[in-house]
Write a structure and sequence with these properties.
single chain, about 30% helix, about 35% strand, two-stranded antiparallel sheet, 12 strands, 6 helices, alpha/beta, about 220 residues
Length: about 220
Amino acid sequence: MLVELNKQNSVLNRFIAELRDINIQKDSMRFRRNLERIGEIFAYELSKKLYYETEQVHTPLGIADIPLYRDRLVLSVALRAGLPLHRGLLNYFDSAESAFISVYREYDDDDRQILQFDHFSCPPLDRKILVICDPALATGQNMILIYSALLKKGQPLHTHIIAPIASRDGVEYILKNTDSEEVTLWTGAIDEELTNKSYIIPGLGDAGDLAYGNK
């Protein structure tokens, strides 16, 4: 299942525009803050898909019946680019657990990219809602590898993949390699061009470097 939040005009477009803007990108603090605000918007929209039960809340003057979500969430992020996005999600889902993945890329003799896991920390996922966030989705292959690795920790009720910027190729790869009843892909903008070196055009550049400085 695919959800494109930019199909409806909202303040999200302003934050994505600033993420892309080569001049505003020079302010790393603003870049991180924009990713965090985008994470909050995605969290709000995603919350509409959760399971709710009505709870009675006692006020000083009486009792209010309020629907509250009951799902248990695990927010997963690949270090380091996704950290501000993860923080935005955690601002809203403040009772959620977190999973952290440290990955790096190696290349074989045929110049094919191989994703290596340096660190993997994840709570059990059975009967929980898994949320995987990454600022940009290029080919989608690394995301599927991360998703498959996380499933070794259990079978979630549903998985939400959040990518504010995505390529058309990456979106199609995710949809082709996941079950629409098990996975929802959320995007803020889909770019049509992906270079042979897997750069999204127009994209936004290297989110990790823009947020935390050059490697």
